[in-house]
Amino acid sequence: MSVARTGWHAVFVDDDLGPGLISLHEISRRERRVQRRAFPTGRVVWDFDVGSEVTGLDADSGFLHVVTARRELITLNAQDGTVIQRKHIVFGHPPYTPLCVTVAPNGDVLVGTAEGRILVLPPQE
Fold this sequence. Notes:
Layout: E1 3-7, E2 10-15, E3 18-26, E4 32-38, E5 44-49, E6 54-60, E7 63-68, E8 72-77, E9 83-88, E10 98-103, E11 109-113, E12 118-121
Antiparallel strand pairs: 1-2, 2-3, 3-4, 4-5, 6-7, 7-8, 8-9, 10-11, 11-12
């Protein structure tokens, strides 16, 4: 069973690896990483270089969804950090500015924007 609880740029997960915290670490303006750490020891389980400012993240059903200021949705395997998909979020013109992300009960990925829109993206392909 996979359990996820979300906080500001951090998600608590409990899956086959046991409890863990997946969170954003801004090392510098150019280096932004997402790490999974074992809970409560803090041991790094995996580390992923996002390469852009992260505006939101959420986890559900074994997947971590990361939204960036470059209008990307990056989906990672929450257990090992491997990339499942990486795609640009494009919905009409002008382009929207993503601010946050959450997963709906049906699995759709919902991206809130600075323009007051909610973009509905189907689950990973």
